[in-house]
Write a structure and sequence with these properties.
Distance between the termini: 30 Å
Radius of gyration: 12 Å
Order of helices and strands: EEHEHEHE
Number of strands: 5
Shape: globular
């Protein structure tokens, strides 16, 4: 399944799989957004699959945002497909952003 990103009320919803084939383009897309914006909220509730490359990309984005004093939330803690893949870095996942 191709990766689809939609914006819904200031939240970027990702549908599909975050895997090696698309992780790099996802990273570039959100790096640019983080450069231009002070806050980015990702919802990965509808991600069907994530591999190690996807986890690495989202972890890098999170750490770079923190380093640059940007707000970067990843909503998707209830998605077991995703939360299991994050393992010991699951602290970057949130249930919501409020």
């Amino acid at each position: 399944m191709a990766l689809q990103i939609t914006k819904n009320h200031e939240i970027f919803e990702i549908k599909g799989s975050i895997v090696a084939e698309n992780a790099q383009s996802l990273q570039h897309h959100f790096e640019k957004l983080l450069f231009d914006c002070d806050k980015v909220i990702l919802c990965i509730d509808n991600v069907k699959k994530i591999d190690a490359f996807g986890v690495t990309v989202l972890t890098k984005l999170f750490r770079n945002a923190m380093k640059n004093n940007k707000i970067f939330f990843i909503i998707g803690k209830e998605n077991k497909n995703v939360s299991n893949a994050f393992g010991n870095v699951s602290y970057i996942l949130r249930s919501d952003f409020v």
